[in-house]
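Many introductory courses stop at the sequence. We go one step further.
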Amino acid sequence: MTNRRIRRVLALAVVLPVAAAVAYAGSDFLPEPSWKPVKPEAVFTRLEDYLQLADIAPAVQAEVRDRWRASGTEVGSDLLTRLAQSLAKADDRVAELVAFCAGTSLPGQKLPEFAWLADSETPEFVRYNMRLYYARWLVQQGYNDEAISWTEGLSTDDVVAPEELLFYRAVAYHQLVEPDKSDVAIGELLEGQDKLPARYQKLAELMRHDMEGLKDGSLDHISRRMADIRRRLAQGRSGERVQSIEKGVIDSLDKLIKKAEDQAQLQQAQMAAGSAKTPPSTPMQDSHLAEGKGPGKVEQRDIGHGTGWGNLPDKDREKAMQEIGREYPSHYREVIEEYFRRLAAEESADHP
């Protein structure tokens, strides 16, 4: 290869990667994330603006700044927690919220209202971020409906921790078995995955994988909704929302069981038809018309006309249960058994 050709190859080796990078950066393969992580310096600037606009005493302002600086040296301290602890020095309402969220919920516990979080008189900087702070605690304690309510209307530009807003919103929807809404939040979260903490990225990917292929009315979907019911009942919730979910679970189970029942009956009918068509073991000796000796009547069998699972004999009921067991993982059997226990309890209540 001549020197001239060598120079051309070297030139291409330099130019082509640069051109490819420019073209790739301008393509649709790398869309601009809809959110960006917030830096501590930007949060402190907004905190300073709040202190000045709120007309807080200089001594209290000094306490807020000292708390902000001190929390920055604490292991595991995140921006949202740092902000909450700092604002608590200037606002007793925030201090009450921080103290409450430092604990854990108790079964049947009534949640505080914290009405000031929804009051338009509360500065947006405080209101929006403390709503997220409270919602994070609610998700961690299993109060997913309330968490969704408090984050309703919040955007990633409103808070100092946009990644936490998206992550905990996705978790809440995931636990409420709302895959479409959860997937939207996960998709938005992963737009900035190169800036995400590893735990958020891994958990988001696991949630997305967990929701893939989840179909309404499937036994997997029913099992998750029953787990949601148990969670609500453990929190002392037994109102219309829980009753509505319970009714949906019963309806879905009715459909699955009816399907299994129909399949079992169809198999029985096919087996009966097949045995009737079985040729005789010994052929006729002469070529003449056979003389039928039977009365020519067909036995009428009742293979079921209704949808009442409870009317099936124990043997057929167990067979249908086995049909379900073949199609779904074995651990779902407890879901079906729980369904039967509930039906038995309802029948006992109707016929004391």
